[in-house]
Each structure stands twice: as C-alpha cells, then as structure tokens.
Amino acid sequence: MTADTANSAEAPKSDYDSPWKEALERFFPEFLALLFPAIHARIDWRVPPEFLDKELQQIGAGSPRGRRYADKLVRVRARDGRRIAVLIHVEVQGDPESDFGERMFVYQTRLRDRYGLEVVSLAVLTDTTASFRPSQFRHRLWGCGIAFRFPMVKLLDYVDPNRWAELEASDNLFALVVMAQIRAKVTDEAETLKGWKFRLIRRMYERGYSETLILQVFRLIDWMIRLPQALEADFRQTLYAYEEQLRMPYVTTVEQAGIEKGVQQGEAKTLLRQLTRKFGPEAAQRHRERIERAELEQLDTWLDRILTADTPETIFH
In what residue span(s) does the DUF4351 domain sit (predicted)? Predict the structure, then answer.
C-alpha cells in the first residue's frame, strides 16, 4: 500500500505529472548527472538543451500510451569531435505496463525516421512493483528479429539503505526530488510523510541554496508530497517557524504574498460587482483597470464609499 491509498480519504490526490515535467525542464543536467551519469558525461553542456514538447506530441499521436507521469524530448550536443545533434527521449513511467518496452521502441523508430538524428531513449520507473523492470524490446519471427535496449532506472531500488545513503549524501539537488518521489510512493503513514517533507526542505536551507533554488525545489516537493489538510497546515506552521528562526522567510513571504493577492482580487471583484449593480455595467467597465490595479488599502476605502456614493466619480475622487 502506498501513501496515496492509505490516506486517500483525507489527503488530496497526488500530482506526479506536473512536478516531473517541470523538474526535467528546470534541472535536466542535474537529472542526468544523478540518474544517468554516463549519458551526462557525453553531452556538451555549453550548448543549452532544447525541449521539443510539441514534436514529441506529434510523434506520439496514435501510439499505444500507458499511464506515465511525463515524457520529454530534448535536443543536445554531443561532446565528441562530430558534435552531432542527439535527441534524448525520457519516459517517466508511473505504473507497470506489459508493452512498455515496445512503446519505447516505437518512439525510438518514429523519432529516428522523423528527424534523421541519433536518438537516446531513457526510462525512469517510479512504480512500487519490484518485478517491473523493462529495459528492452525483442521480437523474432521466421528468421527476422528486433533487439532494442534502453537504459532504465528504478527509483524503488533507492529504498535500499545503501542506495538511500547515496541520495542523502549527494550534493546534486535533484536527489531531493527523487527522495520526495520515493517517500510519497512508499510511506504509508501521513505523519511520517510530513516529517520527510520537512526534512527534505530543511536540507536546502542547511546547504545554503539560494532563495530561487529553494523556491523552485520546494514547489516540486510540495507537488509530490501531498498531506491531509490538517497535517499540511501543521507542516506549514513548522516551516514558517523554521524560516523565522533562520531569518530566511523565503516560502513564508511568497505564500503570504499569494494570500494578499487573493484578498486583493476578491475585493476588486466585489467592488466591480457592486459598481455594476448600482451604476450599471458601463460604469464598471470604465473603472475596471483602475480597480484591478489598486492596492488592498485603496480598495477598502472605495468599498466604504460606494455605500453612500451618488455617482461613480465620488467613489474614486
């Protein structure tokens, strides 16, 4: 049983698709360095990777599709003298699928045919079925045969204490994303999961990551590790207290700004609705831009004035 099934009655549904897509785009070099170091070493990182999402969608139209979390197509430059372009196709698979190897082969052949470039296919398996380990596709009939192999990483293997220690000791920030994914999948008890969530985020502060990096990785971990409402509120309070202790209110400031923005938007909508009811839609439209740009304190003043205003102009003078 996973954390998803154990707490499904209380916890919001975990969203693994969005964080993986964002993680691959934001931290693609780190992703390869951690999980596929031999591939990482062959790439010329002086040339920025190019993500080809639309092209991959076109290639995948009509192909067999299992339940996966994310797939990415990335154009990189090889480090060798040829400096050829290489397409890296990454599949992040969330559940066992009997024809997964065949699907990887289909994408490989379609990409090679479409672009005429070298294609490297990589698979990341995030499921909890230990026996599901596809790394090839083979087919043979009447003397004709196909043998296709692809590098595969099984995140469940990192649950082993020695492998987990590798993640704990790694200075690669993508290790935090991998640990968050693993704990979200294998931890049954919500209170324990809350502890892991705080521990992983605290590590970023301890390592002295920049505010930008902390907020980016926090977003990914927060997406992956979803807690029941009461525990999530408790986690937030613990995190805010920790930030206050360090005098680094990164998450606190961002979330408070989000709350204030939500209140501001709510009051602006209320004022526009009251203006429409009292003076008609044309008056509301005439003052809409001014209202939507106004600060919260100014909106409070206008909301008080509209109660006794005889004309729209008396509200905004």
Answer: 260-301
Does residue 258 sit in helix, strand or coil? helix
* Residues listed for the chain: 317
The domain total for the chain is 2
pLDDT of 83 above 70: no
Q: Give CA–CA dist 180/289, Å, rounded.
A: 42
Question: Are residues 157 and 185 in contact, defined by beta-carbon separation less than 8 angstroms?
Answer: no
pTM for this prediction: 0.75
| Across 3-24, average pLDDT | 58
Structure confidence at residue 51 (pLDDT): 87
The verdict on 289 and 211 lying in the same domain is: no
Neighbours of 126 (CB within 10 A): 23
Residue 235 covered by a domain: no
In sequence order, the 6+-apart residues with CB closer than 8 A to the CB of 176 are 200, 203, 204, 217, 221
**pLDDT at 9 (0 to 100):** 41
Q: Are residues 152 and 298 in the same domain?
A: no
